[in-house]
UniProtKB/TrEMBL annotation, chain A:
Taxonomic placement: Eukaryota, Metazoa, Chordata, Craniata, Vertebrata
Keywords of this entry: Immunoglobulin domain, Membrane, Transmembrane, Transmembrane helix
Domain Ig-like per the UniProt entry, residue ranges: 57-152, 158-256
Signal peptide bounds: none
The protein's name: Embigin
Gene Ontology CC: axon; plasma membrane
GO biological-process terms attached to the record: axon guidance; dendrite self-avoidance; homophilic cell adhesion via plasma membrane adhesion molecules
Automatic annotation (TrEMBL), chain B:
The protein's name in its UniProt record: Monocarboxylate transporter 13
Alphabetized UniProt keyword annotations: Cell membrane, Golgi apparatus, Membrane, Symport, Transmembrane, Transmembrane helix, Transport
Family per similarity comment: Belongs to the major facilitator superfamily. Monocarboxylate porter (TC 2.A.1.13) family.
Phosphoprotein is among the record's keywords: no
Pfam families: MFS_1 (PF07690)
Example GO molecular function: symporter activity
Species, as recorded: Chelydra serpentina (Snapping turtle)
Length: 327, 440
């Protein structure tokens, strides 16, 4: 496993954030007016180290570097670019042996070869190659001698997360769909809806159907009124950044009132049955007690029936002088 | 021929079914209220209102529940517990059912707050009184079993509510919860009326003016007793902070970035530790190693400190740990408060004292969550809300220090009121004897 070594030039004001992707650890940092975040699948990049040694590139350029050896697994790096900047990607290969062999370096963008060259190992057993870029995409550096190692940088705009679980609403009700981009503030938001045939239509703001609430720049809310069954589809919120756009998906599920009404009626019926059972059991056990009472009467108790009117209930009191009190 | 008259409380038999009924009732009323945070978040999103305004829903429900409990007690002495409880159960379910069709927050205030709250008041007080009549020797055990309801039920309800919201939306979810709440009627059906011999010994009540009746119902004479007054004020302050986590912990967790089920889990774990807290409090009460008032003060202060720590739980394990502590301490405080109240006013006046304390606490319950929500709206996060509620709890605990530090044997015995069997009010673990007997 190789260890990421970041070479940051400029004054980095960084902090770690929660993992953007489950297996990645990310660092966000601002350099000048730009803001970047870098995520790595390899062993934890120690964002607190701010190594200002190593070679100086051109002024105002941010360099993302990866160190590895021939035995390393392929490295994946996610770099999120929020605003335009000069970016340089650097791959740094260390060779364990002292043989001064030639290595073939290839840089690819989205699987198209950009340039290819041969480099020789210098005395310090390092060979590195830098590529200056000006576009988003996936850049790969490939070192080939007898084996091949490579590292891929995924340069992209900030991704918008929609809601993975669908939002449930009812016919005739209104619903609010929310998309957020907390750390990176987009320039604007556009909403699209799916058309069933994989097409996406822009949602036009009509006062009695769709309203877009943009009180804060990093949260957008689409309010849909008077929902009908046709509104059961997916909606996309597109955030426009300086360097590109990204979309998040929110899907809406429309139910009728009959859907929860059926379980409710089932539960209500069950309650009625329970109450009936309880009352029937009580009447049954009272009948048994009454029969037992008549039995005692026959056995010669001194019947002393006192009826006491106590508010609204009547109590009867059977007093058996010769038998133990009723339990 | 009416129900047979018994010489003594059965202490078992049908009584255990009554205990089960009260267990389910407590769970269905308080368990639902505790797990309502899930719906709180949905209301925030759907109605687009501020947290302060949405918090009124929970606070009105609890306030009406506490405020109207004397009404429940008086209706049940008039008509018997069973019809009142069944009517209350019906009203509670109806309130939630109507809430599922709500189009504005005001509808929710009226249907959940007013209707369900009032229904809950009609259910709870008579049920507890009936339970007290069924048990004499084992009353402590029965009440402990019954009051473990909210804890256990909120354990299951919180994730269940989230699941209902995910499947049916908040409207469908409320509808199904209404169906669940209708089971209160079945619980009420279990409350068979019980006639004890002491009822017959009482003469019928003389006609009194409604003002005198009201004043005796609320026990307003108790307000002149200084120990009781400080205790009640402390209860009011405590309630300002105590209920805030039930309303705002789930939204706070969601704002910190945890997902729906993680937040719901926090609430259900509170329910589990609440149960442990109650058991430990019951054990402490039985042991009588320390004076109850001291124990209550200490635990109240600890609960307040735990609330102060909530905003500092940034990771899920930390927040869960703080949350478990809170659940444990808060669960213990409730039975301790009740036992202390008995110690202060004596078992004869406990019924009125409970009514009056509930009345005063209802104001705290009414103001607490909306105040906390307002603080959240003003400052942008729930940090200040939790700090404020923790402070209220700590102040409430400090007020307890001003209760005169002696067993207040000076409370005069209450005038014997007809139609008010003393034993029905004896909901303590002291088994009927006055705690000041034989003590200095």
């Amino acid at each position: 496993m190789s260890i990421c070594n970041q070479n940051l030039f400029g004054y980095a004001n960084h902090y770690t954030q929660k993992e953007l992707v489950k297996s990645q650890k990310c660092v966000i940092f601002t350099v000048g007016m730009g803001m970047f975040s870098r995520c790595s699948t390899t062993a934890a990049a120690d964002g607190s180290k701010d190594s200002l040694n190593n070679t100086q590139p051109a002024q105002g350029t941010v360099v993302f570097a990866v160190d590895f050896r021939f035995s390393s697994a392929p490295v994946e790096e996610n770099v999120i670019l929020y605003s335009p900047a000069n970016i340089a990607l650097s791959c740094n290969l260390t060779s364990p042996s002292t043989d001064s062999a030639t290595v073939n370096v290839t840089w690819k963008k989205d699987n198209e070869t950009l340039r290819s060259s041969s480099v020789t190992f210098n005395e310090t057993k390092h060979v590195w190659s830098t590529q200056y870029i000006n576009q988003m995409g996936n850049y790969t550096c490939v070192f080939k001698r007898d084996q091949e190692v490579k590292a891929t940088f995924h340069l992209q705009v900030p991704q918008i997360e929609g809601k993975e679980h669908h939002v449930v609403s009812y016919v005739g009700d209104s619903v609010v769909l929310v998309c957020k981009s907390i750390k990176y503030i987009p320039i604007s938001w556009i909403w699209y809806m799916s058309n069933g045939s994989d097409q996406q239509l822009p949602v036009s703001v009509q006062w009695n159907k769709y309203t877009v609430d943009e009180k804060y720049a990093n949260i957008t809310k689409l309010k849909i009124l008077k929902i009908s069954e046709e509104d059961d589809r997916s909606y996309w919120c597109q955030a426009v950044f300086k360097l590109g756009e990204s979309k998040g998906k929110v899907s809406l599920k429309v139910l009728t009132y009959m859907t929860p009404l059926k379980p409710f009626l089932a539960i209500a019926a069950e309650v009625i049955i329970l109450v009936a059972i309880i009352f029937l059991y009580e009447m049954y056990s009272k009948k048994k007690q009454m029969h037992a009472g008549t039995l005692r009467q026959l056995m010669g108790c001194n019947l002393n029936v006192i009826s006491v009117q106590r508010k609204s209930s009547t109590l009867s009191f059977i007093n058996c002088w010769r038998f133990p009190k009723l339990s | 021929m009416g129900p047979p008259v018994l010489a003594a409380a059965p202490d078992g038999g049908w009584g255990w079914l009554v205990a089960l009924a009260v267990f389910l009732e407590a769970g269905l009323i308080f368990g639902v209220i505790r797990s309502f945070g899930v719906f709180f978040v949905e209301f925030l999103g759907h109605f687009g209102e501020l947290a302060g305004r949405v918090s009124w829903v929970t606070s009105i429900t609890i306030a009406i529940l506490l405020f109207a409990s004397p009404v429940g007690t008086s209706l049940s002495t008039q008509y018997g517990a069973r019809p009142v409880v069944m009517a209350g159960g019906f009203l509670s379910g109806l309130g939630l059912l109507l809430a599922s069709f709500a189009t504005s927050l005001t509808h929710l205030y009226l249907s959940i707050g007013l209707l369900s709250g009032f229904g809950g008041a009609l259910v709870f007080a008579p049920s507890v009184a009936t339970l007290a009549r069924y048990f004499k020797r084992r009353r402590a055990l029965a009440t402990a079993v019954a009051f473990s309801g909210p804890g256990l039920c909120s354990l299951a309800f919180s994730p269940l509510f989230q699941f209902l919201v995910d499947s049916y939306g908040w409207r469908g979810g409320l509808m199904i919860v209404a169906g669940m709440t209708f089971h209160l009627m079945a619980c009420g059906a279990l409350l068979r009326p019980l006639a004890l011999t002491e009822d017959l010994a009482l003469a019928p009540a003389p006609q009194r003016s409604w003002l005198a009746k009201l004043s005796s119902l609320f026990g307003l004479a108790l307000l002149s007793s200084w120990p009781f007054l400080t205790f009640a004020v402390s209860g009011l302050l405590m309630n300002l902070g105590y209920l805030v986590p039930f309303a705002h912990l789930v939204p706070h967790a969601r704002e910190m970035g945890f997902d729906e089920y993680q937040a719901a889990c926090l609430m259900s774990m509170t329910g589990a530790t609440d149960l442990c807290g109650r058991l430990v409090a019951g054990w402490l009460d039985a042991r009588r190693a320390f004076r109850l008032l001291h124990t209550l003060t200490l635990w109240t202060l600890l609960t307040g400190i735990t609330l102060l720590l909530v905003p500092f739980g940034h990771t899920y394990p930390t927040l869960m740990a703080i949350d478990l502590c809170y659940g444990f301490l808060a669960g213990a405080v409730v039975p301790l408060k009740f036992s202390c109240l008995v110690e202060i006013v004596g078992t004869g006046r406990i019924l009125e004292a409970t009514g009056l304390v509930h009345l005063l606490e209802s104001f705290g319950a009414l103001a607490g969550p909306p105040l906390s929500g307002f603080l959240r709206d003003v400052t942008g996060s729930y940090t200040v809300s939790f700090i404020a509620s923790g402070t209220f709890l700590i102040v409430g605990g400090l007020v307890l220090f001003t209760v005169p530090n002696f067993c207040s044997c000076s409370t005069t015995s209450p005038p014997k009121q007809s139609g008010d069997p003393e034993d029905a009010g004896n909901l303590t673990r002291h088994n009927g004897d006055h705690p000041c007997d034989g003590k200095t």
